[in-house]
Amino acid sequence: MRTLKPLFVLIFLAVLTAGYSQKVYTEKDIKIIPKPTQLVINKGVFEFSKSTKFIAVTDFQKEISNALISKFEKAGGFRPELSTAIPNSNYVQFKVDETLEKEAYILDVNSKFITITAKGQAGFIYGLESIRQLLPVVIESKNVIPKQKWQIPSLLINDKPRFQWRGLMLDLSRHFFDKNYILATIDRLAMHKMNVLHLHLVDDQGWRIEIKKYPKLTEVGAWRVDQESLSWNARLTTNPDEKGTYGGFLTQDELKEIVKYAASKNVEIIPEIEMPAHVSSAIAAYPELACFDQRIGVPSGGLWPITDIYCAGKETTFEFLQNVIDEVVTIFPSKYIHIGGDEATKTNWDKCPNCQKRMQENGLKNSHELQSYFVKRMEKYINSKGKKLIGWDEILEGGLAPEATVMSWRGTKGGIEAAEQGHDVIMTPESPCYFNFYQGPQNEEPLAFDAYNPLNKVYEFDPVVSTMTPDQAKHVLGGQANLWAEFLSSPSASEYMIFPRLAALSETLWSPKESRNWNDFTTRLTSLLQRYNYLGINYAKSAYLVTASSTADLAQKQINVTLKNEFPNPDIRYVLGNKPLDQQALKYTNPIPFNGTTILKASLFQNDKPVGKTFTDTIVFHKGVGHKVSYLTPYNGNYKGDGPFGMVNAIRGSKNFHDGQWQAWLVNDMEIVIDLEQQLNIQQVIVGTLESQGAGINFPLQVKVLVSNDSINYKEVGKVNRTYASNPVSELKDFIITFDKQNTRFIKIIAVNLRKSPKGDSSWLFVDEILVN
Fold it and tell me: Which one-letter DSSP state was computed for residue 360?
């Protein structure tokens, strides 16, 4: 017996130790986005295994269970079973509770079983999505992860969304995205508990929906002349006789497949059929839809103002639109049809005899009231089909249609006005809901619309404006992100703009306002980004980027550089020169002073390691820094840079031409003189410039340098010529003029403006710094 006692003790200790080795979960371990409404963590864990059963009694329950089961099959190497019989333990069960709200769910996890209680399909989907985010991130792997424990903590989640409308708009017109990308986007919306996908199917640059009664809409209107090598707003007017080859469209069968799949994920597809403007693609196909039967080509790029719009005076226009709506309603079972209604330039209506007759017959005072007539008439027809109309906030002009819902994009003013009138509202203000805006420093980002909506700005969004009364707030259905696709020609580019900003938006629209916290969100975001990696989502890492801003103390000949990052209390470290950016890097606390040419490298650190892209900049102190500049042609008042010393302050501009470091000339050449205040030996002048042809900014055609010792008699010492070339991207370029060494005091620099673009627009010339060496 004595020999057995030590063995018994060892076994007892082993069992005891095994019990204590089980992970103890805290709230910090729960990484669910969007954050649940209520969460209670209990002791213990539930572990999935090959003997786990999903109790599914309906086809839908089987379908959504299989989505998670397939993940265990790929990442775990085992396949839990579907069953209708409830075992004693180790199962996941769906329970119906008709008293819960439509999308609410209760997730109850203990060591023996899991129950998801919901009113119906939506809640069951979201309960499983929460289980998915409770599992280790490697559940998203397409390859088996050996020795992985598939545990989740015992807990109780009682969850429901704050808003009923949680949406994303995809622009399929400016660049076409096919069925497969749309289906993938639906999966990702469900993962984030978003429930609306708004498809922008019609715009000037392409008609993307098959309408069988009008085949030319896709034969002609879905295709434009390929000018993809040019900047969006620099593309030339299309000849209507030139056949378009760039584009595409979705068939009605494809759209029905998309709608059916979306419904299985609790995502409602909202079609947008623009009217009366943004319809050049339709007029290119059927010129008689316009006021003067004008023949136009499908625009290949930017178009402004939008004057080719549907004629509001012809009965045939309304006959056409009603026939289109008749086919649209057979495809989309959604409650709503979006009709756009924005940015209609009505100059043709003001001249059109048909439109003037319509106004006279209906007692309409102006073209704004004619647009209101147009919208109200179409709303009546849409209502007759059992649908509700949504329009952009311009539909308020001239009087709002009786039952219309307003999507407020020009800020929140339109939404507030509509709610005051008792209309439902979806808030989608440009700031921060336009995901086609930059989300990081422009120098580090792909081309985007020239505005800034970073991740933290999206997270601050609230659809209910603080000045609203409780009754007005009840009309706010929710919010939506809009992704306009002028600069997005691939699914990868589209993903980059959507993620992770969609995660921030999902939390603002789902979670209780009082529970939202940016610091807490960023800690949970890291886990979600790891899931994106496994899922192959090309998400932006812009939030990790370190950005810099500088101020110049010219009296002291010193530059002070401030570093920052989106994350709260970021651990930013930096080095000077060519030192490695490692654990020995200096921790950034205050602006860094520079009084000589130096390389600066910096990065955000996590766990003592740099994350994200390294910020690198060279602060260049040249012989012209701080010296007097005379402007022989004054810079434009809208772009003053850093004032009179802006050309010689050693601070460079970025691709964001609103960053305050650029001086600019419209049509005029730049001609300036730098006074070095004494004769110095120089042999090089560098002129820093920007080109962004879509914004009308072009590189100079020539840069010339002249020198003098009396500021009267100048001699030319060097020049650089260039020929205009189309350029679809924003680009920074230094024009370098090197010459024989000169002993001189005054330097005259002349940069020749393009003056007129090939499109006929006035040209800007932008310069940030003149470096003298």
Answer: H
Comparing 103 with 645, the larger pLDDT belongs to 103
Q: By percentage, how much of the chain surpasses pLDDT 90?
A: 86
Q: How confident is the model at residue 2 (pLDDT cuts 50, 70, 90)?
A: very low
Nearest to 275 by CA among 337, 336, 231: 337
What is each CA distance from 32 to 27, 113, 615, 684, 726, in whole angstroms? 10, 20, 31, 57, 47
Long-range contacts of 42-45 (CB under 8 A, 24+ apart): 42/110, 42/153, 42/154, 42/155, 42/156, 43/154, 44/110, 44/111, 44/153, 44/154, 45/111, 45/151, 45/152, 45/153, 45/154
Q: How far apart are CA 344 and CA 276, in angstroms?
A: 7
- Cα separation of the two ends of the chain: 94
Locate 540 and state its tokens.
Answer: 């932006």
Give the pLDDT mean for 6-23.
46
pLDDT band with cut points at 50, 70 and 90 for residue 22: low
- Of the candidates 123, 108, 152, which has an alpha carbon nearest to the alpha carbon of residue 60? 123
The residues pairing with 117 across neighbouring beta strands, listed in sequence order, are 95, 106
**Rounded Cα gap, residues 585 and 573, in angstroms:** 6
| Residue that is written with structure tokens 């004693």 in the block | 88
Residue 21's pLDDT band (boundaries 50, 70, 90)? low
Give the residue among 471, 473, 547, 572 at the shortest CA–CA distance from 513: 473
Where in the sequence numbering do the catalytic residues fall?
203, 278, 343
- Between the CA of residue 642 and those of 490, 647, 656, 767, what are the distances in Å? 38, 8, 15, 12
Torsion, Cα of 313, 316, 321, 326 (10° steps): 140
CA atoms of 475 and 419, how far apart (whole Å): 6
Alpha helix positions (H), 151-242: 179-191, 216-219
CA distance 600 to 188: 39
Instruction: Let me know: does 709 contact 715? Beta carbons within 8 Å.
Output: no
Closest CA to 101 of 122, 116, 115: 122
C-alpha distances in Å from residue 279, one per residue of 173, 252, 351: 11, 20, 19
Q: By CB neighbour count within 10 A (0-12 exposed, 13-18 middle, 19+ buried), where does 739 fall?
A: middle
Q: Is 417 helix (H, G, I), strand (E, B) or coil?
A: helix
269 touches 328 (CB < 8 A):
no
3-state helix, strand, coil in the chain (%, to 5): 30, 30, 40
**Averaged over 675-698, what is the pLDDT?**
96
CA distance 689 to 669: 13
- Complete DSSP assignment for 726-740: --SS-EEEEEEEEEE
Count of CB atoms situated within 10 Å of the CB of 19: 8
Bridge partners, residue 720, by sequence: 703
Distance (Å, whole) CA 599 – CA 597: 7
d(CA 127, CA 116): 6
**Given the structure tokens 């005051």, which residue do they identify?**
420
SS3 242: coil
The three-state (H, E, C) secondary structure of 583-621, written as one string: CCCEECCCCEEECCCEEEEEEEEECCEEEEEEEEEEECC
Q: Which two tokens stand for residue 278?
A: 């943004």
Q: Hey, what are 72's tokens?
A: 């265990």
Q: Is the dihedral of CA 675, 678, 679, 681 positive or negative?
A: negative
What DSSP character marks residue 503?
Answer: H
Cα separation, 374 vs 743, whole angstroms: 73
Confidence category of residue 335, pLDDT binned at 50, 70, 90: very high
What token pair was written down for 736? 């370098």
Instruction: Provide the whole-model pTM.
Output: 0.90
In 131-214, beta strands by DSSP E = 151-159, 165-171, 196-200, 202-203, 206-207
Alpha helices in 21-76 (DSSP H): 59-71
- Residue 105 amino acid letter: Y
Which amino acid is located at 228 in the chain? E
Residues 6+ apart with CB under 8 A from 90: 49, 51, 52, 53, 112, 113
* Helix/strand/coil for 160: coil
What residues form DSSP beta bridges with 283? none
